[in-house]
Amino acid sequence: MTTATLTPARAGTGADDTRIGAAGTLRHIGALTRRNLMRIKADPESMFDAVLMPIVFTLLFVYVFGGAIAGGQDSYIQRLIPGLLGQTGMTLALAVGTGLNSDFQTGVMDRFRTLPIGRASVLLSKLAAESLRALLSSAILLGFAFVLGFEVKTGVLEVLATVGLSLVFGMSIVWISMLLGMALRSPQAVQGVSMLVLMPMQFGSSIFAPTDTMPGWLQTFTEVNPLSQLADASRALLNGEGAVAHPVMVVLIWSAVSTAIFAPLAVARFRKRT
Amino acid sequence: MTGIATAPNTRGTAGNAVEVHGIVKHFGSTKALDGVDLTVREGTVLALLGPNGAGKTTLVRVLSTLIKPDAGSAFVGGYDVVRQPKQLRRTIGLTGQYASVDELLSGYENLYLIGRLLDLSSRDSKARAAELLERFSLTEAAKRTAKTYSGGMRRRLDLAASMMGRPRVLYLDEPTTGLDPRTRNEVWDEVQRMVSEGSTVLLTTQYMEEAEQLADELTVIDRGKVIANGGVAELKARVGGQILQVRPAHPAELPEMARCLHESGITSATVSPDDGLLAVPLAGEEQLTAVIGVLGGRGFAIAGIDTKVPSLDEVFLAITGKPTAGPATAPAAALVKEPVA
């Protein structure tokens, strides 16, 4: 082996003139996404939230509460499944912070930072892996729902639109999760706080029950809760009843506002930490 | 040098793989690095010796672009740590207390990932990963997740990871802390091999023995300041090299033994009656023969002899005339915690 020479190949300007082009960035994101997926393979329990939760929620609510809420399983399933599908993006987005936190804690992030890659690649690869997880989770939920007798009254395009809307909203929540991941000390703390955010939003929405029996203050909350709007939009898309445009617009506005506020904060914090 | 000068000056001096000029780094009110200067010549090993909290890891983090210095300048392979971080990262490999492997990935997948992030092709990443796994005796464990590895295996994987891109400059941050002697020797062998292949190594350690084993040059650092530097032999001469310990069969004869040595011109012998030991710092190997010759010639009964490398504390004592940082009553190493950025 030859002795390496230490004359920089391109030291002319003194500037950091190694640009990481788009192709390089895509390759890095690909490699890191692969890593995130391999981690899931090595730790299948981490898929519980994506695989088992939709099944457990469906069974629990359809058979335990279905009769009481909607007067029958069949009508309840048509109400519940679109709502669950709508919230899939958000529930999974909240796992991003946990993974990010553990990368910081274990020193893996330091390793990445000594490599000549763009910092955004690390974040974007998390988005990519989470999107794949969300797609898988949505497929499982729908498949299971069909077995139980759920019917899509519209068409494939509407199903895709529902999943897409759920993903868009989920992506806007990812930034909040990343902020939590960087602000809190341990992955467990991140998970705990995430649940604390998620639970009231899930149940204080129109996903599981009609909101008209709730007290006034709670109705106010459910009306502004984006998960209600997501559930309404999903029901309109899949059941073909009610207005589509309004709830979809509201969800998109929520997503845009959340991204506009939290993405710069998360990126700034990430830059500061790295 | 200021680092803001014209182009040729910003690249450091030819022949130096690492050049550090007056680096200062604060963490809050703590001054972790207080104007550190050092150079590592191409193809050599520099050991940065110091107790916990001396600033060793902080300096390595500055030189790996993980943190920015508050003042001063540093060049690695001719690249400025602050202004050319991406180019610099292509030049270095880091194995350390902090930089780590992914526990949930197999040994092979860890190396493959790093290869891809270093822009090696898929085929090259595979080949290089297999080569390094073989070299670090990890081929059998290649498909197991790193979580199942022993401490020594993890350290070897960590070393392999830092070598994926054939870095010209390697930082080894306390590479053998916490390892058993056998694994430690394996790591040492690998470091020596890397150097023989042309790498430049900056090594931090708390062990004089490790520095002696691996380094060409030594820089001793304490409380963020360089307190001594030079060739290993040169510093050893100042510190006194190895220490000969003689255990007489009859401890009562200790003062008499010291007196006889003194008469023969060996004036550095000290007696510790509590341990029943006579200690003689050795300037060279011939002195060992001389001491044994004198004691044997006078008919003293010797129960045992031993030589030992001076500890970090003894090195500090010899250089500064005072023990490592902190109150004299407490073991210095336990006192100051390295700030984590």
From TrEMBL, chain A:
Q: How does it sit in the membrane?
A: Multi-pass membrane protein
Q: Which GO terms describe its biological process?
A: response to antibiotic
Q: Name one Pfam family in it.
A: ABC2_membrane
Q: What GO cellular component entries does it have? A: ATP-binding cassette (ABC) transporter complex
**Database matches in InterPro entries:** ABC2_TM, ABC2_TM_bact-type, ABC_2_transport, Nod_factor_ABC_transporter
Q: Where are the transmembrane segments?
A: 51-70, 132-150, 156-180, 192-209, 244-268
Q: Where in the cell is it found?
A: Cell membrane; Membrane
Q: Which GO terms describe its molecular function?
A: ABC-type transporter activity
Q: Start and end of every ABC transmembrane type-2 domain?
A: 45-273
Report whether Glycoprotein shows up as a keyword of the record: no
Q: What is its main location?
A: membrane
Keyword annotations of the record? Antibiotic resistance, Cell membrane, Membrane, Transmembrane, Transmembrane helix, Transport
> What family does the Swiss-Prot or TrEMBL record give for this protein?
Belongs to the ABC-2 integral membrane protein family.
Spell out the protein name for this chain.
Transport permease protein
Organism per entry: Kitasatospora aureofaciens (Streptomyces aureofaciens)
From TrEMBL, chain B:
Specify the ABC transporter domain's residue ranges: 18-248
Q: Which family does it belong to?
A: Belongs to the ABC transporter superfamily. Drug exporter-1 (DrugE1) (TC 3.A.1.105) family.
What keywords sit in the KW lines?
Antibiotic resistance, ATP-binding, Cell membrane, Membrane, Nucleotide-binding, Translocase, Transport
The record ties this protein, via SMART domains, to: AAA
Signal peptide from the UniProt entry: none
GO molecular-function annotation terms?
Answer: ABC-type xenobiotic transporter activity; ATP binding; ATP hydrolysis activity
- Topology within the bilayer: Peripheral membrane protein
Species lineage: Bacteria, Bacillati, Actinomycetota, Actinomycetes, Kitasatosporales
Going by the record, the broad EC class of this enzyme is translocase
Q: What is its EC number?
A: 7.6.2.2
Task: Spell out the Pfam families in the cross-references.
Answer: ABC_tran
Organism name: Kitasatospora aureofaciens
Query: What protein name does the entry list?
Result: ABC-type xenobiotic transporter
Specify the domain of life of the species encoding this protein.
Answer: Bacteria
| Localisation per UniProt entry | Cell membrane
